[in-house]
Queue: 2 jobs
Job 1
Amino acid sequence: MEKLRIEGGHPLRGEVAVAGAKNAALPIMCAALLSGEPLALANVPQLHDVATALKLLDRLGVKSRRAGDRVELDAGAVASVEAPYELVRTMRASILVLGPLLARFGEARVSLPGGCAIGQRPVDQHIKGLQAMGAQISIEHGYVVAKAARLKGARIVTDMVTVTGTENLMMAATLADGETVIENAAREPEVLDLAAALVAMGARIDGAGTDRIVVHGVERLHGGEHRVMADRIEAGTFLCAVAATGGEVTLTQALPATMDATLDKLREAGAGVEVGGDSIRLSMKGRPRAVDLRTAPYPGFATDMQAQFMALDCIAEGAGVVTETIFENRFMHVLELQRLGADIAIEGNTAVVRGVPGLSGAAVMATDLRASAGLVIAGLVAEGETTIDRIYHLDRGYEQMEARLAALGARIERIRGSA
Ligand code: EPU
């Protein structure tokens, strides 16, 4: 198993280009199932989760061609409507094939994802919405089995804001008979990016990016082209790293307009932040100030940035109160940060982080994707050597993280588990 070895204490300087967004690329790749004609995508990040999505689509009979950041998907000869457990359990986003398969082929069998490190993460809202559109759904042998001759437009109010739930229902509705209204829809920029890709394929969608999305179903979608938006979470992770280590870094190919909550918190922590159309320059001198955070659906503070900011609070001046409202078990990085000398107390869904003047390097273990990112940031500031085990979690969502950080001056390398 591979690990990262980091020697902390080196400021970051330079320029780094932000990759395409994982959480936009995954649903958009699944959207290729809605049409018999090819979907050409650009700015697709080279991530483990993208490889898993390609494997899943291949299983269904979708032909793919990949060259660099470009991926072409052709679902003209789909041979199966079943997403098997062994792929779904490694990537929960696989549930995103449910809506498209059902809408285009009238049936789908998608494994239930099962447990997940950061919380229960049920898919009941995806199912409820599809049932409202007339689907017959049962759970058989661990699979969601869905059938519908043709989905019908419906008014759906989700019980909570769900990102992939909104995406699944929006995709399904594009081919439904009549108008579908999704109330309490997720407003995440990735939902808007998916809507843009669907519109490029001929879908009729209004209100994406608001909490009320209206989809006018059409008979069929055609092929299309789309460039995947920049990853706001990857960008935020780099910025947190610079805020923690000190230095000055410019992000290019970024989408600062999608990052208000993150950029506000970085300014509150004492960073100088300058924003251009697609660039962000962050400079940090001295020790950051601790910030309070409360995760919330977009445009609130993203749960996917919580671990990285907690790492920043660990070495900040003062104390920060971090409240996680989206997932019930997303504090697993706390025990690992404590191994590095952090002072964190957890009470329910709230963590009180009292900043310490410095962390000290240690062996730690990554538990999920964003927790790994938090540990990398902590390792970059900790005195001495930090090794992070199980970095396959990091590779799911960050493209060559260690090489890009090293180019900014970090002392970081990938090593084999036995080293
Ligand atoms: N929920 C339900 N029932 C449902 C759907 C969701 O109870 O049917 C609950 C979840 O358990 C959670 C809350 O609603 O408590 C919100 O979950 P949501 O459905 O929004 O999460 P998701 O769609 O499964 C996406 C991202 C996550 C990100 C969350 C929240 C993708 C592929 N994944 O997950 O990204 O944390 O939204 O913003 O878009 C990551 O990239 O590291 C990651 C985990």
Note: Residues 23, 26, 92-93, 119-126, 160, 162-165, 303-304, 326-327, 369-370, 397 surround EPU (CB under 6 Å).
Job 2
Amino acid sequence: MALKALDIYKLLPKKNCKECGVPTCLTFAMKLASGKADLDLCPYLDETARSMLGASTRPPIRKVKVGVGERSFTIGDETVFYRHEKTFYHQPGIVFSITDEMDEASIRAVVERVRDEKLTRVGADLVINGIAVVHTAADPAAYGRAVAVIEELADLPEVLITTDPVALEAALVLCGGFRPLIASATADNYQAFAALAKKYGCPLAISAPDLAAMKDLVGKVTAAGVENLVLDLAPASPGAFIVTSSLVRQQSLARTVPELGYPVLYNTCKSSSPDAAIVAGILKYAGVIVTAPLSKAETFAALTLRQNIYTDPQKPIQMNPGLYRIGSPGTDAPVLMTVNFSLTFFTLQGYLEGTRMPCFMLVVDTEGQSVLTAIAAGKLNETLVRDSIKKFDVESQVTHRKVIIPGYASPLSGAIEDASGWKVLVGPRDAAEIGEYLEKEWKA
Ligand code: SF4
């Protein structure tokens, strides 16, 4: 069970030396109680206190990093069961699988897609995270050859899926320094797999027939010196995944079974409903999702869903308020006012770019709320628009004094005119109509 901050405080050395990065031992105790600090940060803890605090103060779900460098991804370190309680922090790494029986050209095609394909959505570049290499060939050396093709083409995180330690080491000699995730050790082979994970400093996935056996295996593998674990749940169906993954999340957060406090891997390749499996993985706590390569449309759907689920529900994605340029607008270019809700911004920006008419976007700070919500909440008003025109020095950029406001902000048009002295033109309600609107209505 989790200890309370005061119980933890009693066990701390109380030097208030700040070496743990916080001003007092009490603050450190509070951070430990909420799983936001590591015991190792305090160098003065004696062994008795360390063993008493042990698992009850570590983050309920361990943070694990897969890969190195720019494309590496971090999973785990989650603190809530429901997204609306706070937020989900580390989105699942989605990886496309190849096998070592595929010809080189086919492996290259998958790797190049993962390396190059991206979806830019609400200001973020969304990508598939890496490659899972599945050992299906009879020859262990084939596994190394498949990994060599990936290493030649890209710095992508890898998931090495095999049951054969010989094949595994043939791959690790090539990519072990890049911290691939090894998947998956079982009760039968964990000693060899743990030794290799330790030798190359890699995270290790483990698999067991049920959660009780998984708990036992966690104990054995951590005793063998590997701490960065991922639980490969190997469910029979997406429904089974949801049940098991939810249990793991629940029991690790409540610390009723702290041994299950690791991120989860979901290999969807054998699922008869792969799309449902990927959706279940994204929605229900997978840390790594292995899938056969998806079509472009399926890829973008998965990336969009993942982005939505891993957006902080209490903090809409916001743009920085300011004056943005579309093309190279001159002093007679239109000025379109909009809000800093990113979805509104990027939707309007896309349509404006399509018009090929250079213009300015005056983005006002509605704390990330959309036009209608901001008006209803009193966040979008004439004072904000007037102050934004001044703050972002719009007057020095254009010679006219006209501002186009969103159609849904039409009730504010008179008040904005009175407050700012600018002539207000009411634009369309639907951003898709902005091109036609500008063509017909805009005269500097
Ligand atoms: Fe207290 Fe240890 Fe932090 Fe020093 S390092 S302030 S003794 S908890």
Note: The two ends are 69 Å apart (CA to CA).
